[in-house]
Amino acid sequence: MLAALVAIGAGHLVAAILAPATSPLLVVGSTMIDLAPTPAKEFVVRTFGNYDKPLLIGLIAVVLAGLAGGIGQFAWHRRTPATLAIAGLGLIGVVMALVRPGAAPLDTIPSIVAAAAGAVALQLLVRVIGAGRDRVETPTTAERGRDRRRLMLGIGGAGAVALLGGAGGEAIARQRGGGAGTAAGRLPRPISTAAAIPAGAQVPGATPFITEIADFYRVDISLTTPKISIDGWTLTIDGMVDRPLTLTYDELLELPMIERTITMTCVSNEVGGGYVSTARWLGVPFSEIAERVGIQPGADQAYSYSLDSGYTCSTPLAALTDGRDAMIVVGMNGETLPDKNGFPARMLVPGLFGFVSATKWLRRIEFTTYAERSAYWTDREWATDAPVLTQSRIDVPKSLTTIPRDRAVLGGIAWAQHRGIARVELRIDGGPWQEASLATDAGIDLWRQWSYVYDGPPGQHTAEVRATDATGEVQPEQRTKVFPDGARGWHQIVFSTE
Ligand SMILES: Nc1nc2c(c(=O)[nH]1)N[C@H]1C(S)=C(S)[C@@H](COP(=O)(O)O)O[C@H]1N2
Ligand SMILES: [Mo]
To answer: What is the pLDDT of residues 350-389, one digit of tens each?
Structure first.
């Protein structure tokens, strides 16, 4: 187990220098994410939420410890096979690194180094710790003391090497890359600014209308946050176009930019969930891109590629060209796009769920056909067309809390991006539906806040909410799972008044 620990530490350190995502535990984890069947993935995300990734890494570490422990059982007497077996564990990393989409031969180096480090560590440890093992007579007190000191030396030495490698690697990985901060202050001015959010759009005390960057939800398949350097980064737009285009970061920033406040939602958002946020985005409108490259007839999708692993996304061309504010985003709430939200550039299309529109760490957009290319989540059976579903949420009071009867105000948000919210209704204790008062409308691509004053008898109550979008469609009662095209159903809470 100590040898395996040394291997992981050494691999992590080398990966931090070469490419952090190729660290042995991470390549194994990433490949497992890609290979996991959709229901398994859905179960893990539903059950463990944002702890899904640490959990996966922990699980791999436990399995590794078990295998290494098993090898350790015969290491004393069959040193060579044991050494080969420990090195063999490293080779799992090599294979996993090679099957990652877009893998380069160099990606195997951290796992090769890990295999070698593990083998050397095992040899040394067996020699140091096991020196007295073949003794036939009962050890003397002095010999016993020496054995103990050798054991401590082995544990201490291997532990220190592993810790130095692991912590050093982590520190280097965190420092790496151009990162989001470096381009701060360079953001161009938009040719069209975002409409001001009307004061009445925010219900006092409710969820902030604009989400802080730190609070903005995050959903992606990456085990660690990619830190992309803008040096050497380019965005290619090609495929069925007359004039393919490759832009450096500076060239991208020179294009005309628009600024828009838009609400984003994830298809994996459960009823009442938090995978919905709003920010002010700065980016190049797709209309500008389309004009520059000249999209050829016959293309029906924009197929986008991410720099992190093999993530790809299919966006219907119609949604990019029907006049809505689809854009290639470089700025968020007045700052350069943060690493976690896709630095240096991401896509954003109002009205579509993130997995069919919002590729982060953008590398390439290929105009093509659905017949020709299928995306990461399409291959995993998720919906091909995925407009945001009309949803509403009760944010105050928190479920199972008690509120004073003379100030019993319920509040929350509703969203139906690119259609708009026309009405929100509340139902208390299964009674008749009653109109909530809607906050000022800030635009159809944005969520809308609502409030409702409860003035019924004190005690414990249930409240349910449902929204109607501007096309007249009422949110259905029937709950559905998030797979394959988003959760439906009414959000419900239990609260007390006194
Ligand atoms: N490269 C990459 N881009 C991605 C994803 C991903 O896994 N990888 N997930 C998508 C999904 S499912 C959503 S909902 C949004 C989330 O964007 P956010 O993390 O900035 O909130 O990003 C989209 N873009
Ligand atoms: Mo998503």
So the answer is: 999 999 999 999 999 999 999 999 999 999 999 999 999 9
Q: Which two tokens stand for residue 149?
A: 């000191």
Residue 249: what pLDDT? Answer: 95
Instruction: Evaluate if residue 149 carries a pLDDT over 70.
Output: yes
Classify 164 in phi/psi space as left (phi over 0), alpha (psi -120 to 50) or beta: alpha
Q: Residue 445 Cα, ligand 1 centroid: separation in angstroms?
A: 18
Measure Cα distances from 26 to 159, 184, 294 in Å.
20, 30, 40
Residue of 227, 265, 355 to test ligand 1 pocket, by largest number of atoms within 8 Å of CB: 355
Distance 310 CA to ligand 1 centre (A): 13
Is 498 buried (19+), middle (13-18) or exposed (0-12) by CB count in 10 A?
Answer: exposed
Task: Check residue 185 and give its pLDDT.
Answer: 56
Mean pLDDT of the chain: 93
Of 1, 249, 242, 243, the residue nearest 129 (C-alpha) = 1
Radius of gyration of the chain (CA): 27
Q: How many Cα atoms sit within 13 Å of 69 on the Cβ side? A: 6
Place of tokens 């959903």: 219
Q: Count of H helices and E strands in the chain?
A: 10, 19
Residue 384 main-chain phi, psi, to 5 deg:
-85, -45
Q: Which amino acids bring their CB within 6 angstroms of ligand 1?
A: 216-221, 264, 266, 306, 308, 311, 341, 354-355, 358-361
Among protein residues, the one with the nearest Cα to ligand 1's atom 21 is 218
Q: What is the DSSP letter of 457?
A: -
Distance of alpha carbon 181 from alpha carbon 183, whole angstroms: 6
User: What is the pTM for the complete model shown?
Assistant: 0.85
177, pLDDT greater than 60: no
Ligand 1 atom nearest the C-alpha of 377 is 12
CA distances from 437 to 267, 450, 451, 452, 463 (A): 27, 6, 5, 6, 15
Here the tokens at position 484 are: 């394959």
Structure tokens at 366: 């290929």
Nearest CA to ligand 1 atom 18: 218
Which atom of ligand 1 sits closest to the CA of residue 347? 24
d(CA 116, CA 106): 16
Tokens for 441, please give them: 């409308």
Residue 327 has pLDDT above 60, yes or no: yes
CA distance 126 to 79: 8
Cα separation, 335 vs 143, whole angstroms: 65
CA gap 303, 295 in Å, rounded: 13
Q: Which of 409, 404, 320 is nearest to 359 (CA)?
A: 320
Pairing assessment for the beta strands 346-348 and 312-316 based on DSSP bridges? unpaired
Give the span between the Cα atoms of 444 and 421, in whole angstroms.
Answer: 7
